[in-house]
Amino acid sequence: MSTSPKKALIFQGGWDGHQPVECAALFAGKLAERGFAVEVVDTLDVLNAADRLKALDLIIPLWTGGKLTPDQEKNLEAAVISGVGLAGFHGGMCDAFRGSINYQWMTGGQFLCHPDNIKEYLIRIVNRDDPITRGIPDFRVKSEQYYMLVDPRNEVLAVTTHQSVSAPWTNGVEMPFVWKKVHGAGRVFYSASGHQCQEFTDFPEQLELTLRGMSWAAR
After folding, report:
1. What sign does the CA torsion over 107, 96, 55, 19 have?
2. Most-buried pick from 1, 29, 173, 203 (CB within 10 A)?
3. pLDDT in tens, 123-169
């Protein structure tokens, strides 16, 4: 008996420094390889259709900055509460829609700064038994090291320890960096890595971790 592929929606746009077009193409292809039927759109208008959103299995925002209308925010949150998964990374998910408090509550974190900008640092797995992280070792990346406000209800899977020249008062702070949570009946996954698309090629552990998180989040 055949089963229908899970339906994923990627909406991409906003600040182009995070390469939303390239990241959307990468993840649409990789998720298709894992059995998803993926639609990519370049407009927030898709969030106006509440019933369409609730019919999905997974929503991936790749939209740094931007502004949601009250109805768009309500429709997106209602879809997740109903059981649709939400998954994303870096600024495309957690430096998006700063004026939308319910969106931030749902995602579990909000970007504040990235001291020293692009630099090398370690991602340390703290839950090695979770299916998202199992078998993935600690790994180094070269990216922005996000300092964030985070939801204490997040189930943290990986952390990074801050060390910087420009903000030495943050040195030694262990920052949640990859997490999962539930919001209503929906699963939510986030990874703070992924400043630009090339990172996912340069650091295969980062790509695999993110794809597993997206798959986990899907209804």
Report:
1. negative
2. 203
3. 999 999 999 999 999 999 999 999 999 999 999 999 999 999 999 99
Compute the distance between CA of residue 110 and CA of residue 91 in angstroms, rounded to an integer. 9
**pTM of the shown model:** 0.97
Q: What is the C-alpha radius of gyration for the chain, rounded to an integer number of angstroms? A: 16
Residues 118/112, Cβ–Cβ less than 8 Å: no
Q: Which domains does the chain have, with CATH numbers?
A: 6-217 (3.40.50.880)
Q: How far apart are CA 151 and CA 90, in angstroms?
A: 16
Strands 109-113 and 147-150: antiparallel
Mode of pairing for the β-strands spanning 36-41 and 155-161: unpaired
Helix axes 20-33, 204-217, angle to 10 degrees: 70
